[in-house]
Amino acid sequence: MTFGKASLLGLGFVGAVALGVWMAPYVTDRTDGAIASADTAVVSSSEPTRAPARARRAPAVESATLSRIDAVPPSSPDLQARLKPVLAPGTRVEAAAEGFDSSEQFAIVAHLARNTGVPFVLLKHRVLDQGVSPAEAVRMSKPNVDTTLELNRARAAAHADIWG
């Protein structure tokens, strides 16, 4: 490869990255606006009109998500099939799902265990038997981990698995 071709390739790469950084806020704003306009009809008209779109759409999106999550039991074969790769190899998914009241709780604990390196069995014991929150269960084992970040990552992955 000649120097000219290499420099053009490098310049093209730098230009692509710069374009992505420049366009990111516009793409993000467009997505938020589309979601807000689609969910505005679900929100009751008694809410103030000057509230930001995020504040208006949160209850509608959250209630729709919670109703979908509640509809999927932890013993659902589809959910268990999606969570099998998340759990350690050789884990019986049926046994892992036992004791959880909701599919969301089961999926969050499974993803937290994978993301943080804390054994699933230990997290399950602390959450179900000791009544500790999932974030506190991780904090007890690994105090240096940013539990808020990991819990949000696990919750997002869990919702993606449930919505499947």
Structural description of this entry:
The chain contains eight helices and no strands. By secondary structure, the chain is mainly alpha-helical. It has two domains: 3-43 and 53-69, no CATH class; 73-163, no CATH class. Helix 5 (103-116) crosses helix 8. Residues 30-58 have low confidence and may be disordered.
Keywords:
elongated
Q: Could you name the ranges where pLDDT drops below 50 across 5 or more consecutive residues?
A: 30-58
Give the % helix.
over 70%
Number of domain modules: 2
Measured on Cα atoms, how large is the radius of gyration? 21 Å
SSE-based structural type: mainly alpha
Described by strand count, sense and barrel closure, the largest sheet is: none
Strand content: under 5%
Task: Indicate the overall shape.
Answer: elongated
What is the overall number of helices?
8
Topology as a string of helices (H) and strands (E)? HHHHHHHH
Mean pLDDT: 75
Distance between the termini: 46 Å
Say how many strands there are.
0
Summarize the structure.
This protein has 164 residues and is mainly α. 71% of the residues lie in helices and 0% in strands. It contains eight helices and no strands.
Topology:
Elements: H1 3-39, H2 53-71, H3 77-83, H4 93-97, H5 103-116, H6 120-129, H7 134-141, H8 147-163
Helix pairs in contact: 1-2, 5-6, 5-8, 7-8
